[in-house]
Fold these 4 entries.
Entry 1:
Amino acid sequence: MVHEKKILRLNMQAFDASWHLKYAYTHLKENWSPAPWKKELMYFVIDWLSGSDEIIAQTSGSTGQPKKIRLQKKFMEVSARMTLNFFGLTPGDKVLLCLPIRYIAAKMMLVRAFVGKLDLYSVEPKLYPYSEWTPELDFAAMTPAQAKKLLETGEGTVFMNRIKKLLLGGSALPSLLEEKLQTLKTQVWHSYGMTETMSHIALRKVNGRDRTDGFVPLPGILLSQNSEGCLRITAPHLGIDNMETHDVVERSGDGSFRVLGRTDNVINSGGVKLFPEQIEQKLAKWISAPFYLVAQPDNLLGERPLLRIESDPWPESRVEELRQQIKLHLEKFEVPKEILFVKTFRRTDSGKVVRER
């Protein structure tokens, strides 16, 4: 790589690679103690501008147990260009980085800024990523949890409407949040992807007249399924050949697909395979706290769903109200055998809830 030809426009300033390397090395070597999120950003800049052809990244578990993998920079650049082309981003467009740089979504935002000569605005990656100093933005990427928090306040909603195009990813999109997103003038997409694919390989338009029910693969992405219905991905331009995921999908004739759930989470109740993720979408209207369903042993059916809610115990009247809604809106085999309250769920480093049985 030739450092001098790489320009990064960060927080209203544009410098070449040699300046960024000197700046990062100085701060890190002399212990100026920048905020942890800024330090991580500096380390990634150093890694990206180094002579190595690879980047080390941590997977989330979509294709197996979480692990560290090596990603080829040349394929990351191809992925960046795919996103730039899809969203029509051109040099000078203003984009927001509000995700932890240790994860692929944030890494790819920085790569897109390098490749597309974008004006990148970096703010602290927190659950409420509101910023009053950033200008109107052409593009931003967030988690559904961040979008939910912003929409809970007036200032956050105004901030969201100052973003022309918004990409949500990292987890499922709750139905209540999707309803709220319909009120925004911002164009919103939900992404399907993982570390192994260097960010998204399929997108679903969430709001507007062109909204879709399923994820639409990006150009050049070839999809198939294994015997269990799990998605397989082939993308020669990204160095991906028949990669199997643990996501069970339902494909449509137009090439789009819906994610039913993960094979790891399936509950086999009386011979009926239940995907907790689908049942959780139904329950989201009546449970505002974090929750999930897991399999519980059952003498008659083999397994039954168990509902865990992250909360102090509810009053019995509220629990009974929830039980009534469950009976009205869930199928017989979907009804949880038991409801348990847990003060704090265990979570991964990326903030995803660990489904403990």
Entry 2:
Amino acid sequence: MNNYPAEEFYGSGSPPRIAVVAPRNMRFSADGATSIDLHIHETVRWSQYRDMITVFAEEVINPFKDVDAQFWPKGADARSIAALVAGQVPDLIVVHQHLPTASYLSRTFPKTPVALVRHNFQKAPRNRISRFFKQRRMERLAEIAFVSECCRKDFQKNWPDVTSPVSVVLNGVDETLWQPATVKDPLILFVGRLAPEKGALEAAEAMADILREYPDWKGLMIVSTAPEHAGYAKRVEKVIAEAGGHIDLMCDVDHDTVRHWMGRASISLAPTRTQEPFGRVAVEALASGTVPIASARGGFVEIVGESGILLDTPDRPSLSVAMKNLIGDEGKRLRLAVAGRERVVPRYTLATAAATFDALVGRHCVREVTP
């Protein structure tokens, strides 16, 4: 972890103050943190500017306590968030995900650079008026960063007239924690939201098919649930119930539990049906020596490379064939597991991810060091 004294960077000058603003309706806590919350927490924790950063987020029970943070009450509007941020008198404001909040803060603090970190694709409205006003919001920003190269390229293709600098601030994992177990289990794992876009049903059906043929193997689905997908969840649960005990289901567990099972699993399924902006689950699998079978879409392509199986059509038959090939070829499975771990380290470690964030900070508020 890079915690260097401020004077090493600023000489006799005062160090900068950096405000990192989380989106509303997130959970800045180890209990139920979203991928955005994890990214903020881990990036700040590993940043060389850690002691100069305050995270601003929505109130939550049992928040992360190892970084400086202030909290607004549920239902707070942008004005209330701005008032909280103003108390820090920041030299740089980094807003995650929400363009309207970033735009509002850039107007409220006209002399302070405001950067936006997007965790998915920035869609371009078809309506010319909507596009015009959205572009005006983006033009106010000092920088727009994305969590993957594919998101950055997509943005530059769809928003060619935006003049704000565009960059990448990576996600990452702590490779000292995400590691393969000493002995891998004959286990196929799915981790993700219990939602149609994540391909949970296809994963469950393909698992059930392949486990009938290979009864010495097991399946495990670790899912986060949402009320709006209750009907879809019942369909997945029905497949699992009819699999004769070959597939286990865990719902809404903590990240330590996910890490434990990812370390033990031999194969991981990520059959996302939409463009994946990043694909953190693939990074976690590779770091854990688990071979991912993932959609050849979005961030999965740049993360997995040739260290896993990428499917153009991640449907039930394709998933079954890919699993069968890996189960039947232990040598290939082991080679890919080793290659995946070597690919993640150092490309997607927290040190690397924090370095991309620190570079953003350096571009906007680092003062010259006194000789």
Entry 3:
Amino acid sequence: MNHNFKPTEYLLQSQATGKIFEDTGWLLDAPGETAPALLRAVYQEKSFTPGDNSLGIYKFADWLPVHKTLNGSSAPVTYRSKKLARKLNLENLFITFSGYWPEKEAAMSTCSFKETEAYSVCARLENKSNKVLVVASAGNTARAFAKVCSDNHIPLLLCVPADNLDALWFDKPLNPCVKLAVTEPGSDYFDAIHLSNMAMKCDGFIAEGGAKNVARRDGMGTTVLSATEFIGKIPDYYFQAVGSGTGAIAAWEANLRLIADGRFGNHKMKLLVSQNAPFLPMFNAWKAGSREMLAYNDDTARRHVEEIDAKVLSNRKPPYTIIGGLFDALVDTSGEVLAVSNTDARAANSLFVETEGIDLHPAAAVATASLMKASQTGTINREATIMLNITGGGEIRFKSGRELFYLKPDLVFPIAAGEDMVKSKLERLKW
């Protein structure tokens, strides 16, 4: 922790009413408002002036709602693609990589851009907070928060589906301040969210907040800040695979701040976000022209989650409908939602390894496949500046030759566990 760090000065704004107010401490909703809407941070510093790379993600602290800095962070790394760009006949393809790739100075040991969220969210926590942070995750987010909280002694309760436990690997044992509660085998991310909601009703726990937490979104928005710093201008197209869509919302918001700066262009990136077929709730809603999510049978959804390679893209209750959410971001940027099969994603991963030289997480392979498809069908301008957000990679490289430690569950819950059961079991845990 940097004791000389001066907390970032910012206010919060309701996307429903436009009202601006102070952050009185971990606000996730606008006081006195009932319409479901995201808050947005309004920073005192209007110009984009990144700090030194040695600061990790906190090189972007002017546009992060943080009270402190934490140890061990890394910023996303952007570089210009040559071989993949040539293969796809694209003149200006830039890859923003979040993961482990020593040759590119990418040093995220969890190999996922979820670290950008965790280092921002945990640095938003007031030093005097003595509550246990509660995070629901399908895998990568849990790994990132576990690492950050363990390294910085922040009490954490993770809620994860039992079938996703293989995602909770680490290169060293975790501090006991990190506890794990899982939903039984056969459950999914939606069930883990339900469990986290039950935990939040117990004394002493605080909701991380997901997409509603401005720190989570602005942490993820550092991918666009990295790209713009490297390129010198706002990209024209933005490709990313989405589970909740929070990263794409964050990209849109970062884009708007850069426009307000005035030195990097006044255009909005076209958001081209992709889902892994057959799990396509946002794709189906968008294609139907619907702001509301369409009906999705629970059993069908769980079956579709089992079928997709990119399990982290399996959010059934994404911030799509909410004011300031993904639907609004897509409308404002003339964006599009794309569908990618497992087969196409696997082919994209192979091509990326062949051309760029590093392995991808399945979600990043989905994003790469959507870029391949867009280039083949001519739906993007080949001369345009394209940002491909590689949200995770280098895991095979990182794990090679290392001893790994897996987080074991402290508690196991049935699907749709009730409040009384959750409370009685959580009371047995000691932080």
Entry 4:
Amino acid sequence: MEHLISPPGFGRRHFLSFWDLPDGGIETLLRRAEEFRLLRNLRESHATRPGRVLGMVFEKASTRTRASFEIAMFELGGHALYLGAQGSHLERGEPIRDTARVLSGYCHAIMIRTFAQQRAEELAAYANVPVINGLTDLLHPCQVLADLQTVAQRFGAHGGTHGSDIGRALQAVRYAWIGDGNNMANSWIEAAGILGLDLALACPPGHSPNADIVRRARATERGKITFCSDPIEAARGRHVLSTDVFASMGQEAEAEQRRGEFAGYCLDARLVAGADPAAIVLHCLPAHRGEEITDDVIEGPHSLVWRQAENRLHAQKALLESFL
């Protein structure tokens, strides 16, 4: 393949949510992510960001986020610096604004995986380099970017994101979110409002997505965002069924109570049977099999969970290349 010279960056400072991208930014990233996937499969070099350094601040445990960002930087020709809460002065209460200013002098960008969205925003406010939201309790845009790439690969024209109108391909698909109205649900809602997606959400009472995020997404008057209490109704005829754990990191003490509140919201064969015959199942992992998703579904023919996980690497490369 030829496209070894990278496209210009977006000219925006940070990526804390999908709203930080310019118009068409999601589609641009998805096209580039697919190019990176093909380059990697062909074993072609794509070190478009040699010498760049990414500082990675982790205040939550991670498998896919750390691996995808670290390997992405390596394959782009750069380096990733891991900074965990344990073993750093973050554990001792050093203000995040101090960490921001120090890392800005060392790194070309910073990725943070943390709890409150305000913590990522404070890091961005004091950093002199781009800050990327690797996950907060409010949003997880990096994961949903990879999820959208997975959808485009399955349902896009020509069986992928390259050479096709990604926006129209994504709009032709009907989406369902089953389970907790958490950071993943919030980022799906943002994507729906920006891209004009038809998204149905089934969340138990008391576990709805963030109301401000829903209002902002609906204000675009693009697509359709609906809520229902019945998971079967939400899944009916849908092409994409997504879910996540019922108790996220930091909610471990609520796990037993949540299991009762989320009874009937498990993504199982019954829900898949009511979806479109060509439906795909997504889960951002790690999965608690038998709780939010059954083993036969995550291992079944509709599951694209492992491709979804791999796409974290390709989507992260596109994101890093654009912001570095």
